[in-house]
Amino acid sequence: ANPSLLILPGDGIGPEVMAEVRRVIDWFGANKGLTFDVSEDLVGGASYDKHGTPLTDAAMAKAQEVDAVLLGAVGGPKYDDLDFSVKPERGLLRLRKEMDLFSNLRPAQCFDALADFSSLKHDIVAGLDIMIVRELTSGVYFGEPRGIHKEGNERVGINTQRYTESEIARVSRSAFELARKRSNKVCSMEKANVMESGVLWRDVVQEIHDAEYPDVELSHMYADNGAMQLVRAPKQFDVIVTDNLFGDILSDCAAMLTGSLGMLPSASLGLPMANGRPKALYEPVHGSAPDITGQGKANPIACILSFAMALRYSFDEGDNADLLEGAVQQVLADGARTADLMGPEGGTPISTTEMGDAILA
Ligand code: NAI
Ligand code: MG
């Protein structure tokens, strides 16, 4: 059977950038014999408008069945006053929660042609290609006890950093699996010098490594040093695995090494399904961009690179992922720029569809 994909374009520029991904998918079918069973459904405001809910049970069930889900973006000013229970982002949160997507992959990849967009020097980022794996469903954002209490005559704010062995083990497996599809190197980051959860994190990552992935090169680093190293010499890393809080901060930091929001893909992975593929949701990091919706200005590259991640991490199509990423690299080197990629020197931006055309060509 063909591998299956569920496409959820969502709101705002979501459908505009996803239209370009559809053309890329069709191209692989026509030229590489790589055919997907593609279905499409609504999510976010688009689903609320039609069904009164940001994700129907039928769409949820479909997401659980397919090999990978590809999502555009959700939200927009039209929905800002809705009750929280039916807000567009609830559709996305439901997908993440019910699919149990505990491993969040945020690549920071710097195409040479855009290296001058970085706030860092050209040589520090040119050719950069690293992957931050952030634990997404546990840690200090979820640990109990939490809350604001009165102690004596002052208030105390409490959060608890809590990780079980199995939570650390499953996200480290996810990172080691990824490393094997890249350059086989993992750096784990925590604060074992001051945190008990950090001591356990370091131990468990090392144990999983020694027992199951001895072929992968593993190192450990304190997360504060990691932040410094990311800005000082980011190319020393390949895969970084870290907890929810440190991952939140380090992945935003790494993302900005590369420049525009319109360029950043992401993936969220869960446990392996019966066919061995992990549960998976791929989406651009950006939102629905209401300020440019309907104007043909959106950069489709983040969404197209999200599909490249699906090729690599869900479908074992590393060569075809390389081909697609190479095409993006080439059009940027040739000078193709959507409006968000215009430097101070100016020039004429091309449209969403023209960028799609260039990549296909
Ligand atoms: P945003 O990411 O939609 O836009 C921020 C800025 O970046 C805007 O100026 C926008 O025009 C620009 N931009 C974003 N993607 C672009 C692209 N592909 N090409 C060119 N320019 C691009 O974030 P914002 O404005 O904070 O949020 C807008 C809506 O999106 C809100 O309703 C928010 O809740 C939602 N949102 C949804 C996300 C998701 O679906 N995962 C993530 C972030 C925000
Ligand atoms: Mg963040």
3D structure, described in words:
- This protein has helices at residues 14-32, 45-51, 57-65, 88-98, 122-125, 165-180, 196-212, 223-232, 244-255, 301-313, 318-333, 352-360, and strands at residues 4-10, 37-40, 68-73, 103-109, 129-135, 143-151, 154-160, 185-190, 217-222, 239-242, 265-272, 278-284.
- The two termini are 29 Å apart.
- The protein has two domains: 1-106 and 263-361, Isopropylmalate Dehydrogenase, CATH 3.40.718.10; 129-256, Isopropylmalate Dehydrogenase (3-Layer(aba) Sandwich).
- It contains twelve helices and twelve strands.
- By secondary structure, it is an alpha/beta fold.
- The strands form two sheets. The chain has a ten-stranded mixed β-sheet, with helices on both faces.
- The structure holds 1,4-dihydronicotinamide adenine dinucleotide and magnesium ion (MG).
- Magnesium ion binds next to α9.
Blueprint (SSEs and pairs):
Layout: E1 4-10, H1 14-32, E2 37-40, H2 45-51, H3 57-65, E3 68-73, H4 88-98, E4 103-109, H5 122-125, E5 129-135, E6 143-151, E7 154-160, H6 165-180, E8 185-190, H7 196-212, E9 217-222, H8 223-232, E10 239-242, H9 244-255, E11 265-272, E12 278-284, H10 301-313, H11 318-333, H12 352-360
Parallel strand pairs: 1-2, 1-3, 3-12, 5-10, 8-9, 8-10
Antiparallel strand pairs: 4-5, 4-11, 6-7, 11-12
This protein binds 1,4-dihydronicotinamide adenine dinucleotide and magnesium ion.
1,4-dihydronicotinamide adenine dinucleotide binds next to helix 4.
Which fold name is given in CATH as the topology of the largest domain? Isopropylmalate Dehydrogenase
Report the sheet with the most strands, covering strand number, pairing sense and barrel closure.
10 strands, mixed
Indicate the structural class.
alpha/beta
Q: Segments where pLDDT lies below 50 for 5+ residues?
A: none
Shape: globular
CATH superfamily of the largest domain: Isopropylmalate Dehydrogenase
Indicate the CATH architecture of the largest domain. 3-Layer(aba) Sandwich
Note the total helix count.
12
Ligand names: 1,4-dihydronicotinamide adenine dinucleotide, magnesium ion
Q: CATH class of the largest domain, please?
A: Alpha Beta
Residues in β-strands, percent:
15-25%
What is the N-to-C order of secondary-structure elements (H for helix, E for strand)?
EHEHHEHEHEEEHEHEHEHEEHHH
**What is the radius of gyration computed over CA atoms, rounded to a whole number of angstroms?**
21 Å
Mean pLDDT: 94
Number-wise, the strands total: 12
Helix percentage range: 25-40%
Q: Reading side by side through the largest sheet, how are the strands ordered? A: 2-1-3-12-11-4-5-10-8-9
